[in-house]
Structures
1.
Amino acid sequence: MAIVGYVASILIGISLGLIGGGGSILTVPVLVYLFGVEPVLASAYSLFIVGASSLVGAWPKFKQGFGNIKTAIIFGIPSIAAVYATRKFLVPAIPAELGTIAGVVVTKSLLMMMLFAVLMIAASFSMIRSKKANDSNEPAEQEFNFLLILLEGAFVGVLTGLVGAGGGFLIIPALVLLSKLPMKQAVGTSLLIIAAKSLIGFTGDLSNHININWTLLLMVTALAIVGIFIGDRLSKKIDGNKLKKGFGWFVLVMGVYIIAQQLLFPIPTNKTVAVTDSTWVAPSIYTDNTVHGEERKLIIYGQDLIAHTAKYLGPKGSVAQITNGMNCQNCHLQAGAKVWGNNYAAVFANYPKFRDRSGEVESIYKRVSDCMERSLNGTAIDSNSKEFKAIYAYIKWLGQDVQKGQKPNGVGIEKLAYLNRSADPAKGQVVYTTNCMRCHGDAGQGQLAPNNVEYVYPPLWGPHSYNDGAGLYRISNFAGYVKNNMPFDLASHKNPFLTEEQCWDVAAYVNSQPRPHINQNSDWPVVKNKPIDFPFAPYADDFSETQHKYGPFAPIQEGNKK
């Protein structure tokens, strides 16, 4: 599907090069249906792709005299302000779930796709019914209806911000009618306006610290730009008016398809996401029509608590101040729903259970509290609080299709084969500097969000990181976690970025750095049950504490078999 997506990316640019528009109408569907990008994130990506492509397309138009800087500024200012405000404030403020209509859960993603589909249909009629325009390049006496220009610019800016489309089909008529520009100048001026408002709108998303797959984004953008040049050459050989009308019919069909797919044939409920022999697939609460009312609200709150723990329970938490500012999601990726991302899939199915670390049968409450005390270096959550009940409800719902005693593929953290040597912190430092420092900082301090309440990227050591009793302080856990997930924007369980040796070495480096200490005197009451890589003595063997921390682990494993 990715290959088809890259081909489609070129077609985005070809459309812009051939008919001067239409590329933005294709961008969001390509990202959503061919690359699997979530719709809200796809609208952000579209702003960058459309902006960069339009900027490239505008340059030759202005060199040929087919552009008007004054008009671009007058029309562009309200449009740019509107699109930035929409991406910065309006889009994040839209609730993840808006309600239920005729049994269909109206989510933020569904709303965005429906708006985009309506826009596609409106654009298609504009293309299909367009009359041959006056292509005169003779400058007319310019007139500016400033009030209408202000209103039109703001409207187009909000529209662009919501769905990620350039809005050229609205801008060009407005420039012709409201500022008396000739058509060719209107097209060039429109491209510059689209470029400016789209790229500046994208900075609104950047300021909200969204997670961007820059590799994918830059690849699609580059291919779209290549397509522009191809389209520009083809435009000299193909009748643009006929092509525009044909493209309009294509866009109409696509718009109707999106409405049908999103509304008439909604994504099935999570009940179809049953565990099979293949890798576990997380359900989505926003497509699950089987839970309602207070139960649903509690699950959604639990998900938000995992994703934004510090907002509620951090040093500046609105409910309590019991954690260090990290979020549960910093270790349990995608709110505990990511394959091989330390997910919660099998938690409800396997707790209560006996754990060697405590020597006791532990409940889910004990497991959650351990995370609060160790990974978040805080204190236990109140078992009677709404917050714990919400977390419990979310964990239960997330793992509802996993049977007792079952551990599907992709659950938790992958266990890597031991190295035939010790993991090397010095080599790990090189890996960290090259691949990790850009997000987690040169001193492992992480990156705080602008609100100064939670971390965008968590600290990996220092006073605000996990303490030495956390699960990730064992380098086998850290290495397995890194392999499938880091660097965050480049790796996946299907396509790891780092080698396993690099994963072991960077785990050794990170866990050799200073961090908070927690008293573990009560842990592992049966010493022989300690994991091989538990870094603190005493042990039931004669191997050193250093070897238990960094390896090589194979000799310890063999020795314990005797």
Note: The chain has three domains: 2-264, 294-398, 425-561.
2.
Amino acid sequence: MRVNDVAARENHLYERSATGAPAQHYDALRPVVTKVHRNEQNMVADWAREVIALQSAGKITEALALVEARLAVCADDGRAALLAAKAVVLAARGDLRDALSVATAAREAARLADSQPAMADAGLSLAFVLQMLEEHRRAIDIASECDQIGREYGDESLRFRAQRLLANSYSVIGRHEQAISMLRAVIEHLAADAEGSGLQLYWARLNLLRAEDRQLQASTSEQHVRRLAFRSLYERWHSFADEMSALQLVRLQAIALAKACHVVSELGDDQFALASHEASLPLLYSVGLRSNCAETEYQYGVVLSRLGRFGEARDALQRSIALLDGHGPRILALAWDALSTVFEALDLPYDALSSLKQARHFERQLRDGEALVAATLAEQRVLIDRLSDEWSRLASEDPLTGVANRRAFDRQLAAMADAVNGDSRAGAAFALAFFDLDRFKLVNDAAGHGVGDTVLKRFAAILSSGRRGNDMVARLGGDEFAILFAGVRAGNLGGILDSLVTSVHSENWAAIDSSLRLTVSAGAVHTDEISASQRTPTSLLRVADERLYEAKRNGRNRAVVGF
């Protein structure tokens, strides 16, 4: 059954139930509708995972070609996931400015699809790009937002992904204990879910080792204490690599071995370092980790040079230089400098001098590059600053009407409930009102969804008219709206709602479509009528909802309040 066919049958049966026909037909169709929509969502999610898998394997060109092909045939409500995947691929390629724009486009697509989980997926890609731009504090803000969405929707997988990103940024900015504590909690939860954790558990453990590595690098302990700590860290990296080998997770194994080699340099044991490098290099080459290979070859060459094995050192350093192919001036400068020393030891003064000139060339390039990077980052920060307000808006605004969305409403209601329960002053009191356009489904069926959308925008404008700055108008979904009235007196609430009901009834709807005659039903609750122990968001929502349906039962086109 095609989605369009299901939707048509859904509308038909809903119309029958709304006009008095048995509603069980509609209820019976819901599982079919849900199944079809879920299948489409799963398909797009599989496409996105396929793109990321290619990127993880180093196949950047193939990943970009695939995501562009999928975007060409994907429905609008599935674009967010694919754009988020594209942003990650672009970031991996180093196109950070383009990645930033695509990640922002992914959030816009998620907003238009009215999907908070999709907004979170897009947000995680944006946070990843920001981390690569070294904008860690902004990355923390967005990853925290994604973590909150995961909490609200009960999506543990989303939360763990967000927390891994958070921990990485915390670690980089020096909040080591917080990063380590967060990753340990993630690992504990993932380890308890033997079936559902998958690769997340292993990536979290890898991130924990990285965080502990950063913490150790930043420590100011005495040399012998640091050496013991680095020895322990090396053993844990190697143990992790062995475990990944047993699981045939070769990429994770290779990354762990590369990190182990980096730690070895802190130990001062050249024979130990030599064995470590010789064990890791074949695997690094096999999975195509080019930059890791280059850096490890450089370190290998330095160790060989210290051991007096100058011919082998020369070969290793030249392999490092060839792998970099002119990119990566930091390692190139170090490798050429080390190679110059090796040529001196081999009594090749001309080659030594030529290598030294290359080292100085890349040192200058590195300085120039650092200046260029600084300028680029400054330019990118201007772009990020310009987009910051847009990101906040995308996360909290209903795309059709421009009023607040459900998530922003829930957040504001929770904050106001906390305030009134902690403040006995009259100014902390507030009211919550629900609104539902009467028989709005028939508008869409008779006049079309374009007219329906215009009606919703006009209705949102009516609700917003005359509201004070601290009030919030929100669209909760479909034709369901709410208003949070800050500091309103209980005795005035009925009059305010009656006025809104009258405004909707008297609006010139015929200007939109000659067939339109619209009314609204409302239900509201004031905090003064509920005991302090019951002033929870859940209780307030329940009472307002009950009164809304009381208004519906009593003939519609009215408001029901408690006073």
Note: The chain has 22 helices and five strands.
3.
Amino acid sequence: MNDENRYMGSLLAKTGMVASAHPLSSLAGIEALRQGGTAMDACLSMAAVTTVVLPHMCGLGGDAFFIYREGSSGRAVALNGSGPGGDGLTIERYGQKGGILPQDGILSVAVPGAPLVYEMAAKRFGRLGLKKCFQVGIDVAREGFPVTPELNRSITANKEKLAKFEASKRTFLEDGGPPKVGSTMVREDLASTLEAFALEGASYMYKGSFYRHFQRTQADMGGTFSGDEFPRFFEEPPAFYAPLSTDYRGYTILQTAPVTPGFIMLEEMNILENFEMGEMDLTGADSLHLMIEAKKLAFADRNAHAGDPAVTGFDVTKFISKEYAEELAASISLTRTDSNRLGGLEGGSDTTSFVAWDGEGNVCSFIHSNAFAFGSGVTVPETGVLLNNRAGRSFALQPGHPNALEPGKRPMHTLNCYMVLKDGEPFITGGTPGGDGQPQWNMQMLSLMLDRGMGPQAASDFPRWTSSPGTDVIGLGAPFIVRMESRFPEGTAKALREKGHTVQMVGAWAGGGGAQIIMKDPLTGVLLGGSDRRLTGVALGY
């Protein structure tokens, strides 16, 4: 395991480490660790900062999920934080409007799960307290932060959506366009909301002042929320649970359970285990072909079978079994792609993930999101909180479909987190944003790390591909296409086309994602960190 190649390009540290998609976020995380906080305190501090500096990706109006491994007990625990749409949002009411729900506006909004997740995580796994963890985000919002090229581009790309809603227009399009790169953005309204949340806890969001602001806003916009949804979610919180798991060549891979798509990444890895991935050309067509076909098989299962387990009774046991994976692997032709799978167009995505590892052996993978960039586009006036568009993005309007829209039902999700154990001890924690790209990019990077012995930074830097369609409802049934970064050899694209794949080459670093990964060398105890160069994130350690 102590292979020098594994260390190439990765940040090295001995005691603690964090990695996130923004330098200010990583700085907040490492400071939390240095102040005696746990890995969860670090993640909550990073959550607070990313809520401010990455408003297109995440916030109090979105969802959150995590896997946490306690050093003292050795137990791994996960939590899913996402809510249903409005009680009045039904197929009967909206099923005649074109086959999909609106992708922005109040009809696209689901009850945000993130605030309750933050509070529950702080109480169970934190040491510093919610107020201290969120203070750094409050300070950044009040003092202001430099606008990054990524934020400028995202505002520009979503100008039309943001301009529809007065509060969002005032915040992000003050002079009719996006703030200039390098200019200082101040978010006093959001700072006040974060401060109230940090002091009062999640009740402020689900039963208190924010809830009342939300109810007025959604009523004015013709929303479908009865008024019971937010308090009900708070009073019937999601339960902590043991993560899903599978063995892969001597490693144990942990994933989040439905409504997340974590099971399809485990299904992909189980399929790959039937092939000698470590013996294949890393950038060759044969290895890519097998991974693409594994992705298509797993995603087809998600599209055909997965729905909120609390409503549908969906059970992943079959789909993450070795026997089922063997059947699927045997169905893959090594020479020809199977285009006869269930598919759909990829939607947009804006999400951010971060990871932390502390000196007591506590390890965390955390992810939160607004769904699409800037979510629904709706900012609740006087609060600075952007609302997600998870209901519009994810629910199907086909009666009888496992993911069909129903009151009180949570839509299937794109967010997921993973962790890898070796001999029962944490070896890797990681995650990436990117909608339906997440299970396939995580599969690619895990294969590089577990089959090839790569370190976090090298695996993150490796050329990336994305197979569309995925699971978003906005275009189910579209033909498949593989988008490959131009750093792959031309011969690989040619060979894939000969196998029947439709291939599109994209920019050298335009494959999507923003992976954050920490690995621990079991022989030396050294922590290795990697942060995706496709974003402006950074890993920090001490």
Note: The chain has two domains: 27-66+73-239+362-394, 244-348+417-541.
